[in-house]
Amino acid sequence: MPIQFIEDIKQKVGEYVFKRDLKHNNRIREVHNFNTAKSIGILYDATDIDDMMMVSEFANELFQSKKDVKALGFVNKNELTHHHMPMLQFDFFFLKDLNWYYKPQNYIIKNFLEKDYDILINLCTSNCVPVKYLAGGSRAKFKVGKYEQDLSIYDMMIDVKKDTLSALINEVKHYLNLINKKHAS
After folding, report:
1. How crowded is the C-beta side of 44, counted as CA atoms within 13 Å?
2. pLDDT tens-digit profile of 93-125?
3. 66/41 Cα distance (integer angstroms)
4. Is residue 173 classed exposed, middle or buried when 0-12, 13-18 and 19+ CB atoms within 10 A define those classes?
5. Could you give phi then psi for residue 181, rounded to 5 degrees?
6. Residues in CB range of 126: below 8 A, 6 or more apart
């Protein structure tokens, strides 16, 4: 009982700080598609190795099309495994990088948040609060994520029929190739 009470307080404080920080995120909004974007940030849950490999393949596709791509994965564990080795376009953070009310913080996260990506894609299919915090705090011009009721941090939300990572990636590819920047507003 007391542990749940403390967790509830942490969640409430985290929610309050998240909403407060969202009000101070003065970013420039601009619609981008895969043709117009030069830089793309990707957030995802990297706890599962299969999911990590799927996002890696997607990020590499974008990288091969001459985009500046950076993927930041959250590992919901107390330590990283040998699969989570940071590479040129892939970084990770884990439970140790969250403060007491679950706000992610370290220099990797700070650098990711300060970069002005043309597109930020959140590929979390679950309610991953630390990743959502980063999506909200990012200064990216065009934010894309999975549809969630009562959540207004994205410029484009995708409602997937199948709640899987592969379905979300396919829908993101479809819509970010379909959007015509000239007619979007």
Report:
1. 28
2. 999 999 998 899 999 999 999 999 999 999 998
3. 14
4. middle
5. -60, -35
6. 45
